[in-house]
Amino acid sequence: MILSIESSCDDSSIAITKIDTNELVYHKKISQELQHSVYGGVVPELAARLHVEALPKILEECKEYFPQLKAIAVTNAPGLSVTLMEGVTMAKALSLSLGIPLIAVNHLKGHIYSLFIESEAILPLTVLLVSGGHTQIIEVNSLSDMKIIASTMDDSFGESFDKVAKMLELGYPGGPIIQELSSKGDNEKFDFPVPLRQSPKIEFSYSGLKNAVRLEIEKQETLSERTKADICASFQKTAVEHIMQKLKKLFKQHAPKNFAIVGGASANTCLRGEIENLCEKYGTALMLSELKYCSDNAAMIGRVAVEQYKVSDFIDIDELDVQTRVKVF
Ligand code: KG4
Ligand code: ZN
Fold it and tell me: Does the residue 326 lie in any domain?
């Protein structure tokens, strides 16, 4: 079995995965959303302090599995340096005390393998990764052969939901709140510009849309619940439309055999619905991770670690460090 730790942002999570069968024998996650909600976003130092409390609490429940562990895996990139450090420090201590090797896992690969928890990977695959930190299209041939074919030039899809929610004083994380409020609003009420509409390139940008929403909010004399819902609905429609315009271009050039959406923001039902229709039109098989594995969790880190264990992809304790940004896999 492998014990995996995830602390790249605001979720403290530990999982234990069987190497032979991918079976998830233990998985727990403690979210900090409530504590960050008052600030309208994640406060790194607060997040780190909460990991210091939560991770040992979860680890306590895993002790019975210690004799069966063959490796310790941990997310070391990308993410917030102060929070990644908490997981990495715990992983090093466990590796030393149990005398077992360390596996460093890329968080984005974790999101991709969230599709294959307790199952075998189906590859090759084209993936849309939409999270708080990333908006990318990735061609996945294998765990060690992934190529980013499109990314955002500024804000990410999930981040734009968080920022709009903050402007409207709705709380954090913005994605689920905006999705919920959108269902009560009129998505035609405000005409926000779809980013990069005229550009032939397949790339993303969300800062212009965020600013358009900001200007509209500033124009309003009062912000009634109704207006907030209309802004959310109109914003969500435009944010999803931007992704769909670019995906349609991609499918037109070369429709993939297998397509998947992963990352915390892949829980967005509006985006899921549109992508389902697109895949159906092109006869592309669509893979989605279970909702509980869309947001950050250690189960997906453990699943990647199983693959790395099988090819002895270990890292020396002195070489394991955190990396906040990883541009290429
Ligand atoms: O993958 P994740 O848990 O953390 C990162 O690695 O960033 O993704 C969290 C992000 C947040 O920005 C959150 O607002 C967004 O995913 N999100 C959503 C939805 N649920 C979560 N965005 C849009 N619609 C949703 N339903
Ligand atoms: Zn993530």
Answer: no
Range of the domain at 205: 125-288
Q: Is 110 in the pocket of ligand 1 (CB under 6 A)?
A: no
* Pair 65, 16: CB distance under 8 Å: yes
* Shortest-distance atom of ligand 1 to CA 107: 6
For 239-284, the DSSP string reads HHHHHHHHHHHHHHH---SEEEEESGGGG-HHHHHHHHHHHHHHT-
pLDDT, tens only, 250-270: 999 999 999 999 999 999 999
Given a contact cutoff of 8 angstroms between Cβ atoms, the answer to whether 246 and 204 are in contact is: yes
**What token pair was written down for 60?**
């306590």
pTM value is 0.94
Looking at the domain assignment, is residue 324 inside a domain? no
Strand partners, 15: 4, 27
Ligand 1: distance of its center to the CA of 158 in Å? 5
**Average pLDDT over every residue of 296-305:** 98
Q: Is residue 321 part of a domain?
A: no
Relative to the CA of 131, which ligand 1 atom is closest?
8
Domain tally, the chain: 2
Q: Would 319 be classed as within a structural domain?
A: no
Rounded Cα distance between 117 and 138, Å, is 19
41 in contact with ligand 1, CB cutoff 6 A: no
43 and 104 assigned to the same domain? yes
Q: How confident is the model at residue 329 (pLDDT cuts 50, 70, 90)?
A: low
* H-helix segments, 65-156: 81-98, 107-113
